[in-house]
Amino acid sequence: MPNTKRYAITGGLGFAIGTFFLWNYPNLELGSALIGGLFIAALCLLYSAPLPDMVKGGLIAGLFGAVMTIVYGPEKPGVAIIAGMLSGLGAGLLAFQRKPQATPQAGAVLGAGAGAIAGAWTALALFLTAFVIAPAAGVTANDFAKHLSETVILADLLGLGSDILILLFVLVFCTITGALLGAAASAARALPLRPNIPLLAVIALPVLLIPLIDRAGNLLLLDALIPIYIFILLALGLNIVVGYAGLLDLGYAAFFAIGAYTTAMLSSPHLGINLSFWLVIWVAAAVAAIAGLTLGAPTLPLRGDYLAIVTLGFGEIVPILFRNLGGGPPAGTLTLRFFGMPIGIEQMDLTGGNKGINPISPPNLPLIGNFEPSNKIPWYYLLIIIMGLAIFFINRLRDSRQGRAWMAMREDELAADAMGINVVRTKLLAFSMGAMFSGFGGAFYGAFIGAIFPSSFDFSVSIILLCMVILGGLGNMAGVIVGGLLIQGADKMFIPKGAELFRDIADQRARATGGSTVGVSALQDLTQQRLLLFGIVLVVMMLIRPEGLLPNERRKAELHADDDPININSVAAEAEADPSVAA
Amino acid sequence: MAASQTPTSPQSAPLVPREPFLTKRRAFSIVGLIIFLGFFAIPIYQTILLEMIGDTGQLMQQIVIGLTKGTYIAVIALGYTLVYGILELINFAHGDLFMIGAFLSLIFISLFGLDPKTSSGLTIFFSLIAILGLVMLCTAFLNAGIERFAYRPLRNAPRLAPLISAIGMSFVLQNVGIFLGDGLIWDKIAAGLGSDAIGRVADAMGSQSVAPKNIPDLLPNGQVFFVPASLRYTYKDLLVAVVSLGLLAGLYSFVRFTKLGKAIRATAQDRDAARLMGINADRTISVTFLIGGALGGAAGMIVGLYNGTALFTMGFTAGLLSFTAAVLGGIGNILGSALGGLLIGLVLSLSDQYIGTRWSNAVIFAILVLILLFRPTGLLGQEGGQKA
């Protein structure tokens, strides 16, 4: 009975982890935490139950929408609309995942059902927010109604006066848009067109619309979304190295740092060089690609774990270099001499040391002028263009001769070598191509943030990127994007916002009971626990689904080669028929 | 660990011809390395050598410090080398286990109420021995538990899977360290149980969970009697070196002379063949993790007492150092990692003194890259250690 065990494990884990996290919150007694833990366990069981694809896809995507709604809900209820759209779209894609042979009509029905479920979950979460969570966090019914009517402009236009009506409207709207987008996504995937343009159009619609809804509803989502997209761009580059070429790189943040620092040095008043962003972004990518070659070269004879360690070392050395090649007086003054002549790289202050480089010039376009930090919309569209190009090129690269060489090398280096693949060239190209995309990411990051610090490129960044690639599915770009959205969404949106929400609720309860919340322990600070969550995600993913959420088909087949149920059954049947075999 | 057992008749050529040293790949890699390290190398070597020769007293002092550090780095490195020898897994979580050891020793010290000012020397001595045993016990079982739940189910998975699981465990352990270092949680527990001893733990941890913790200075600080006064060498240094070397010797003789040690060596050499010989491989691996965990915990306590601080990120840095040491000595080889530990300790203290602390990690990694390039199997490792 493998299923009983699975339920016991998922339910038990859900209960334990849920109770543990809830119990940490101030003023939440053990009793309520236990009830919450039971609720979470029930959810875990629901998600691990063998439901039809439609329901399951809807539930999974709906969870995303519901969490986003609850976390942002009390202050920005309008997020529910975006969450509903996105989760409907995701549900449609997920529901279709395991039925690639469906006709467009069948796909549309499937997607519509899943999308409706996801949208309804989101909307229900909004109800929960309106009547339970917002009051608990100290947002009164009046304030909530005001926020809602401010953000849901369409409802205003329709003249829906009462708050319940607006809530109902959002419920219907979320469900319908979810269903529509889900249906469109599923149907578009089912169309027998090779370069999936309809699918791209369906996905592009909400992605391109987000800034407008955001602007209209004043949701301030873009502040979080742009860093998320940058990380996804980086993860796509890492996917070339780890997913396609099979080279475990634990120091990928180094290339990100190199891209960002190149931009910062060439396009800021710091060194007196102030080139245009449009030139510098290419220079940064080229420098990062060359750095990839330079790292790749010494690692050529290494395999497996040793390679991982050397890349990790590189990832540590690069931030140290950036930290030490500049800034204030060095801790232990070291005057370097070159055949007796003192040379002063210490004095030149290349990188600003710990303080980093600040400010960095923003890009400039004739019609828009300078990209302002206050107006995120041009940044967003610029990033969308960069990402679109990256996805296009990586896709073409994967299917090219080079891409096939990478995968052949990933499967078996010796065999690939014997088949006439130039392994040296293939490896070096994988490193430099992967690094190049992080160079683009780093350049954009530097210009967008407007300042960079060596501490933003440490080991945890490399690990988070690796997490994104593994969680989504090694070697599958759609998977990497989904993994990136989930992990970075958790990192930059859910966890900080959730922590804020919990803090508000705790404050509210403390005020009611006359207690205080001064002195929050590490357990109660959700933002400190993000690395714990990543650790758990990595371990659990490896244990239950090493191929990731949306696996690459071939990799999935590799990883599940020996748990073919037919074999086990036939062996058992044979054993029953012939007692001597069993003995 | 044992010599190759393959019987070779004189006329049979080796199955795989030995690679010539200067292959195309290696040539590429050397050129890359020169670009990578070379541009700041020459001035540094020149400067440092001049400075070293200028003040021999200083140099001797640094060598002594380096060797002392080297002994505990070697103890941590052994944990890596044991696990790598038997599973070919870089146990990323080992460094963090070391950190947990330091935290646990601080907790026990506070529970016992040890204080360098009030407690007598004899109490401190016996309590420290007891604490060392307790810490080793805790980390041993923690490590074995990690193996049971996070690595054993992945025994037959692709090689990346256990490595990633180990990285995940390392993050989990770091957070355990944050929780252990959180005085507010201890306060909550102390209030719940009404216990004074736990209250002392809460005081020792303070309210900032991520801040470095002070471990009371319990080791004797006097100058060792037989060392000339010009060279500062305290009983503290001596104790650290003696305990570490004792652990190393104990482990070496355990693996070399006991039946269980033999089982470990057999499993490391060929797990399937060992199974056929009636060795319970899973149990042997568990024992290996128990030993590795105990060594990590002991090292954590030694380092905690020696440096007087514990920090939740100390495991990551120490882990990198000692992994480098293990690779330098030849991973999988016990004597090798002892040697590697001493060398890395030496390099570390010299680079701290002559290049600057902030460059030390870069220096260590540059050394790691160099070793892997020219001698991928380490100083005492055997040929053919580089399995795909």
Structure description:
The complex is a heterodimer of chains A (583) and B (388). Chain A has helices at 2-23, 30-48, 53-72, 79-97, 104-136, 141-151, 153-158, 163-190, 197-217, 222-244, 253-266, 277-296, 304-324, 345-348, 377-399, 401-411, 413-418, 423-449, 459-472, 477-513, 530-544, 553-559, 565-577, 579-582; strands spanning 267-268, 273-274, 336-338, 341-343, 364-365, 369-370. By secondary structure, chain A is an all-alpha fold. The longest helix of chain A is centred in the last third of the chain and has 37 residues, at 477-513. The two termini of chain B are 19 Å apart. With 388 residues, chain B is mainly α. In chain B, 71% of the residues lie in helices and 1% in strands. Chain B has helices at residues 24-38, 41-54, 56-87, 93-112, 121-151, 160-180, 183-193, 196-205, 235-257, 259-269, 271-276, 281-307, 314-329, 334-354, 357-374; strands spanning 213-214, 309-310. Chains A and B meet through helix 12, helix 13, strand 3, helix 18 and helix 19 of A and helix 1, helix 2, helix 6, helix 7 and helix 13 of B. Chain B: The chain crosses the membrane at residues 27-50, 70-90, 97-114, 120-142, 163-186, 238-255, 285-306, 326-350, 362-381. Chain B: It comes from Herpetosiphon gulosus.
Compact overview of the structure:
Chain A has 583 residues and is an all-alpha fold. In chain A, 72% of the residues lie in helices and 2% in strands.
The end-to-end distance of chain B, rounded to whole angstroms, is 19 Å
Number of E-state strands of chain B = 2
Query: Given the structure, what is the number of helices of chain B?
Result: 15
Largest interface: A-B, 68 and 75 residues
Structural class of chain B: mainly alpha
User: How does the major sheet of chain A shape up?
Assistant: 2 strands, antiparallel
What sequence of helices (H) and strands (E) makes up the elements of chain B?
Answer: HHHHHHHHEHHHHEHHH
The global form of chain B is globular
Q: Helix content range of the residues of chain A, please? A: over 70%
Low-pLDDT stretches of chain A are 329-333, 562-583
Q: Can you summarize the main beta sheet of chain B?
A: 2 strands, antiparallel
| Residue fraction in strands of chain B | under 5%
Number of strands of chain A: 6
Provide mean pLDDT of chain B, rounded.
82
- Overall pLDDT score of chain A: 78
Count of DSSP-assigned helices of chain A: 24
Q: Which oligomeric state applies? A: heterodimer
